[in-house]
Specification:
- The structure is a single chain.
- This protein has about 350 residues and is an alpha+beta fold.
- Helix content is about 55%, strand content about 15%.
- Strands 2-8-7-4-5 form a five-stranded mixed β-sheet, with no helix packed on it. Strands 1-3-6 form a three-stranded antiparallel β-sheet, with no helix packed on it.
- Helix 2 packs parallel to helix 5, helix 2 runs parallel beside helix 8 and helix 5 packs across helix 6.
- The termini are far apart.
Length: about 350
């Protein structure tokens, strides 16, 4: 029994010795630091986060010895292997062992895959170098920014055209039943075009939100997928904008062709004090004025066929200060809607 007790005591003592020694082997004193890559000159939140995909960047060290210093080395890494290297020194670290290089601003490298190696040399430490792999992709980020710019501009145009088409549809729906029946095909097409535009607009806004999230994540695969979706959404929205613009022009022309409608009906009534005759007219006068205003504006559009024809081939963005075809179409349609609605508001209800 005594032998067994002694043996157990010996095993316990050896286990404690091994447990107390393990941290010393795994984490030598003075070699406790970690390094992170941060996008640009600013800091991540939290600062201890790491950016594996960057354009410009800086190196940030944490938990090194207070007041220590050392070296850093960057070299291209497979699959890039472009032979590019960078070397420098860091420090002295703060009392908490924190440092960054460069101390202000950011550094840059050609697009590619790289590996960072960091070593504390003062005071000297046992153990190997700290390291971090990362991607530099300024061209990729530039493409994402262009896709975001294109989609944002197209969404702005779509919102304007959608509002104009809704206003034109509203004008048509204020006409008499007979007039609406005469233009039912055009009106139905306009309503369908507006619904399609609204659906494409919602999809584009969702694609833009996804692209913004991907750019913020700096994940290459996520950015590539979001850019492809944004480009598809831009193309689809441009097609719907063109269809909606054509529908607006066609419906405006139908409104102008509807012609005047004058109500000839009269209402006879007898009051307690005698007879009184009241003659009423329908909203035909207002419709006549509306159709005239619409005809004037549509004639202006039709007299400039280069603007209407250009609707099908609009670019997603424009760097030119000249008015775009959609801008010209918008001005004309706003004039139509504004003139018609003013006349309808002033006219008595039918």
């Amino acid at each position: 029994m005594r032998k067994l007790t002694g043996l157990l005591a010996l095993v316990a003592a050896m286990a404690l010795l091994l447990l107390s020694a393990t941290p010393a082997y795994a984490d030598p004193p003075g070699n406790n630091g970690t390094v992170k890559i941060h996008e640009g000159a600013g800091e991540d939140q939290p600062e201890t986060a790491n950016d594996p995909h960057v354009c410009t960047f800086h190196i940030h060290g944490f938990n090194f010895d207070g007041g220590s210093s050392g070296t850093w080395h960057i070299e291209s890494w497979s699959p890039t292997n472009n032979g590019v290297t960078r070397d420098g020194t860091w420090g002295p670290a703060s009392t908490s062992g924190e440092w960054r290089e460069p101390k202000a601003g950011a550094m840059s490298l050609p697009d590619g895959h790289y590996k960072l190696f960091v070593k504390q040399t003062v005071p000297a430490t046992p153990g190997g170098e700290k390291h971090k792999v990362f991607w530099v992709g300024c061209a990729r980020q530039s493409g994402a920014e262009q896709a975001r710019e294109n989609l944002t501009a197209t969404i702005g145009t779509a919102r304007t055209v959608n509002a104009q088409l809704l206003a034109t549809i509203h004008v048509a729906q204020q006409l008499s039943a007979a007039q609406q029946a005469a233009m039912m095909t055009v009106l139905s097409a306009a309503i369908a075009a507006q619904a399609n535009l609204a659906a494409a607009l919602a999809a584009a806004e969702n694609a833009l939100a996804q692209l913004n999230a991907a750019i913020s994540s700096a994940n290459a695969a996520q950015i590539a997928a979001a850019v492809a979706a944004a480009e598809e959404a831009t193309a689809n929205l441009n097609a719907r904008i063109a269809a909606a613009g054509q529908a607006s022009v066609a419906l405006g022309a139908a409104i102008s062709a509807a012609g005047p409608t004058t109500g000839a009906g009269s209402t006879q009534g007898t009051t307690a004090g005698g007879s009184a005759t009241t003659s009423g007219t329908s909203a035909g006068t207002a419709t006549t004025g509306a159709a005239t205003s619409a005809a004037t504006a549509v004639a202006g559009l039709q007299s400039a066929p280069q603007n209407v024809a250009a609707i099908q081939n609009l670019p997603s963005t424009s760097s030119s200060p000249e008015p775009t075809p959609f801008a010209l179409l918008g001005v004309a349609l706003i004039a139509v809607g504004g003139a018609v609605l003013r006349r309808l508001q002033k006219s008595p209800a039918p």
